[in-house]
Design a protein that fits this description.
7-stranded parallel β-sheet, Rossmann fold, SDR_fam, single chain, globular, KR_dom, 269 residues, binds beta-D-glucopyranose, alpha/beta, oxidoreductase activity, acting on the CH-OH group of donors, NAD or NADP as acceptor, 14% strand, 7 helices
Length: 269
């Protein structure tokens, strides 16, 4: 349950918000009282549905199409957010994708696409959001921080992942980018943190859960013995963005049912 005024009056931008974790997070931010920009790159209809769902909660929401790896489009998106809502308080840099292949079949295009969206995209969004955070500064009635950035990482910022070198490298990069920005921006009262989801049931990993055999294999990697829901991440994002977590700076919150606990060692080693 989300205390419904936890983010009252705050303005949030969630990238990749028309499906999966981003969608659940955008709706949860709305439920917590924030106005929300629902970014998407493809799938306008789904984005509009998310907007309608958020509006029905009694807050404002708009859909905005932008490719987070395109500098001009990110600049325009943050400008639009400020035009619509007056300012920005929370960025959830969530947009991400996988283009899997074994190394010898990993084309430069696949490598580059994943790095562009998952890492460069977060960098561009963080940079533009921070300009607005610093322009406006702290408004104590709204939040103790001038701004909050949540980078959507993955357990694969620490777990190597054969066949996914582009994705794992992008998330390793997200960790260091997040920690560096957290160090750089903390004195300016901008809190930068990450969430590292484990296996969350979304379109990105359908093959890992949509047959009984795949699910059984997947559950061997999850001590808590259930596949995560987008809502598990959304609730963590709301809490992390709120002043409940005002002293949390530069942290990665693993929301993974224990996937990073080396479950193979529960019976071995
Ligand atoms: C990936 C999923 C995967 C999960 C756990 C996520 O970051 O996007 O495909 O199921 O990590 O391995």
């Amino acid at each position: 349950m989300i205390p419904d005024q936890l983010l009252k009056g705050q303005k949030a931008l969630v990238t990749g918000a028309n499906s999966g974790i981003g969608k659940a997070t955008a709706v949860a931010m709305g439920r917590a009282g924030a106005d929300v920009v629902v970014n998407y790159v493809a799938g306008r209809e789904e984005a509009e549905k998310v907007v309608e769902e958020i509006k029905s909660l009694g807050v404002r929401a708009v859909a905005h199409e932008a490719d987070v790896s395109d500098e001009d489009q990110v600049v325009a998106m943050v400008n639009r957010t400020v035009e619509e809502f007056g300012t920005l308080d929370i960025l959830v840099a969530n947009a991400g994708l996988q283009r899997d292949a074994p190394l010898t079949e990993m084309t430069l295009a696949r490598w580059q696409k994943v790095l562009d969206v998952n890492l460069t995209g977060q960098f561009l969004c963080a940079r533009e959001a921070t300009k607005e955070f610093l322009r406006r500064g702290v408004v104590p009635e709204v939040s103790r921080a001038a701004g909050k950035i949540i980078c959507m990482s993955s357990v694969h910022q620490v777990i190597p992942w054969a066949g996914h070198v582009n994705y794992a490298s992008s998330k390793g990069g997200v960790q260091m980018m997040m920690e560096t920005l957290a160090q750089e921006l903390a004195p300016k009262k901008v809190r930068v943190n990450a969430i590292a989801p484990g296996a969350i049931q979304t379109p990105i990993n359908r093959g890992a859960w949509d047959t009984p055999e795949a699910r059984e294999d997947l559950l061997k990697l999850i001590p808590y013995d259930r596949v995560g829901d987008p809502e598990d991440i959304a609730l963590a994002a709301v809490a992390l963005a709120s002043d409940l977590m005002d002293y949390v700076v530069g942290a990665t919150l693993f929301v993974d049912g224990g996937m990073t606990l080396f479950p193979g060692f529960a019976t071995g080693g």
